[in-house]
Amino acid sequence: MAADRRANWLKGVLDLAVLACLRHGESYGYELARALDAAGLGQIKGGTLYPVLNRLEEAGLVEAEYRVAERGPGRRYYRLTDAGRAALTEQGASWLGFHEAVRTLLTGGGA
Amino acid sequence: MTYFEELADGLRRLGVAEDRIGPLVDELSGHVAESGADPEEEFGPAVRFAAEFAEGAGGGAAADGPAADAERWVWSADASVDQAMMNRFGAQGWEIERVDHLGRFVSRRDLASPTQWEYRRDVVDRRERAAHAEALAPDGWEPCGHWLFLAYSKRPLAAVAGPAADIETPAGRPGRSYYFTRELWVPLAVSAACLGVAGGLLAVAFTTGGGGNALRGMLFGLPVGLVLGGVGAFVAYRRKRAEYARASRRPHESRRPREGA
């Protein structure tokens, strides 16, 4: 039950979390998964992460560049676009507002 | 077929551009190489991942292409095995939408939430098809095609089994699309052999100067052959029809008395 609830929260905010991970520079899929894990969001499976990255790319919020590796398969590096940076600012503020409302309610500070 | 080959195949079928598939497969291969994870465990079943990815990649956008949330498959089987094959593939999530004019089963499978289907086949006269469909409807059956005197019906297994009918990990797409047995091949081969022998004898007759006699023989032999062949075909048709009427069968069910027309 608790895991389901957490998964649902994550579903609603994962795209923002990915945008936030790219705020300070480019990154690639596996590195992003590790960054999200290190941030406390848990291990995000590739089956969840890559469709999100794809949707962000299709929406023009990130852009990707494929680079051939010297050894092994190539990597696609993602970076924020201007639209992505604006979406992160705007949607991030919206999420924080929502978070604050829930926090206030849960801590007994609400009406 | 490896996981990534299956994935690439699935993406192609869903209309994802080729220049997007290669880099994606590379990207995912790199991910499992770094993480040491099993691809299926990391990305889920290839067909499901392909569907989810294609949804955001403009796959299936072509007017004639399949919807991104379903894969399509057209297949065929002769009447001696079609029921068994329909139910085998129905258990893998394939839903037959119709029977086309060549007698092939036009099927789809939901990629996001595949569920099992079951099928039945009955012998029904053309005029009685509507009444037949109406009689089966209370049990959840709906028509999914006709071929000669055969009427095919389908229903989602969830109608009788509930959520147990959902498919967690759908099987890959079947390797073959045609399932023909000796029931079809033997009569075809015999007919082809008869035509071949007759043609050969005529050719010999004409090349040896006996063309006139051969033509006179044909005037008698052709009608007689057509009548005998027609009678034989009609008898075979009636016998097969009676046999199929007795053999109508559904999964989880042994042979049962024939219902419907």
Provide an overview of this structure.
The complex is a heterodimer of chains A (111) and B (261). Chain A has 111 residues and is α+β, with helices and mostly antiparallel strands. Chain A has one domain: Orthogonal Bundle (Arc Repressor Mutant, subunit A), CATH 1.10.10.10. Helices cover 64% and strands 13% of the residues of chain A. Chain A contains 4 helices and 3 strands, in the order αβααββα. Chain A has helices spanning 2-21, 29-41, 46-58, 82-106; strands spanning 27-28, 62-67, 75-80. A 3-stranded antiparallel beta sheet of chain A has the order 1-3-2. Chain A is globular. With 261 residues, chain B is α+β, with helices and mostly antiparallel strands. Chain B has 3 domains: 3-56, no CATH class; 70-179, no CATH class; 182-246, no CATH class. Chain B contains 9 helices and 7 strands. In chain B, the strands form 2 sheets. A 4-stranded mixed beta sheet of chain B has the order 2-3-1-7, with helices on one face. In chain B, strands 4-6-5 form a 3-stranded antiparallel beta sheet, with helices on both faces. In chain B, a hairpin with a 5-residue loop joins strand 2 and strand 3. The longest helix of chain B has 37 residues, at 211-247. The A-B interface holds A 28-30, 33, 45-47, 50-51, 54-55, 58, 66, 69, 72-76 and B 23-24, 26-35, 37, 42-44, 48-49, 52-53, 55-58.
CATH fold title of chain A: Arc Repressor Mutant, subunit A
Strand content bin of chain A: 5-15%
> Ends of chain B: how far apart?
45 Å
Q: Helical segment tally of chain A?
A: 4
User: Widest sheet of chain A: strand order?
Assistant: 1-3-2
Q: Give unreliable regions of chain A as ranges.
A: none
Largest interface, counted by CB within 8 Å of the partner chain's CB: A-B, 19 and 24 residues
Q: Approximately how much helix is present in the residues of chain B?
A: 40-55%
Q: Given the structure, what is the number of helices of chain B?
A: 9
